[in-house]
Predict the 3D structure of the following.
Amino acid sequence: MERHPGLVRPYFETADEVLDIPLSRLCLEGGAEELRDTSVTQPAVYLVSLIAAAILREQGIMPSVVAGHSLGEYTALASAGVLDWVDGLRLVRQRGLLMAEVNRRTPGRMAAVIGLPAERVRELCEEVAGARRTVVEVANYNSAQQTVVSGATDGVAEVSRRAGAEGASHVAELKVGAPFHCSLMADVAAEFGEHLAATSFRTPSVPVVANVAASYVHSGPEARELLGEQLAAPVRWHETLNLLGREEVSGVVEVGPGRVLTNLSRSVHPGVPALPAGTARQIDKAVEQLSGAPV
């Protein structure tokens, strides 16, 4: 905020007014408990990611292709001109509210399984779901050896146990507000589709890769349709990274908080520079390293 007040402040002020919640205060001063509510987390992460992308553009770092992981797809679509950023803000707020409601009705969990092939994790989900008559599914195909599962609490716990017994190097419960990207979200997909239908989607100004297809979006209506499917479908991030690798991009920049996607990119394509850009220091480093090169 201090480094780029003229660029950053309008984003926060608009967000506070549009959502009628103190999002700026929550982003800058909010405690962990306040931010854990997915109806707050989602617009907060979206806004911070958009601001980071805007600062990069202001300093000459222009993307040649964009992709976003789950919630990040909204930032990618806004960056590609498909969504007006304020429309995207309204959508992610509604998305968070609907997902939180699902979790209140049917509490669920998500867990990351590291060190087992993705296909075996998928098989474990099917075995547990059939044997226990519960919901547990692959939510994110992050890399060949990192897969996230999502579903009912008992199903995720059992897949986690079996994965550990089969030699997974690490199994970790994710601190999220709902069981994203599984069929438990199907009930709210139709309701969210009404919000998508009322929102304008335009043709991408730069190529954008969709989560559920791991392929390029060519039109506004296609982007809207795939975004609607995204709620209850797995994120095909490993395939997305492979697609970006075939494009021979000069570097990958992760905008927004954290560096999970940076680490995934480095593991899949170690020869392609991957940089986090969620803090002022990280943004400065990314600008220094990538100035003049398309990313």
Remarks:
- The CA atoms of residues 16 and 22 lie 5 Å apart.
- The chain is about 55% helix and 15% strand.
- The longest helix spans residues 38-58.
- The mean pLDDT is 93.
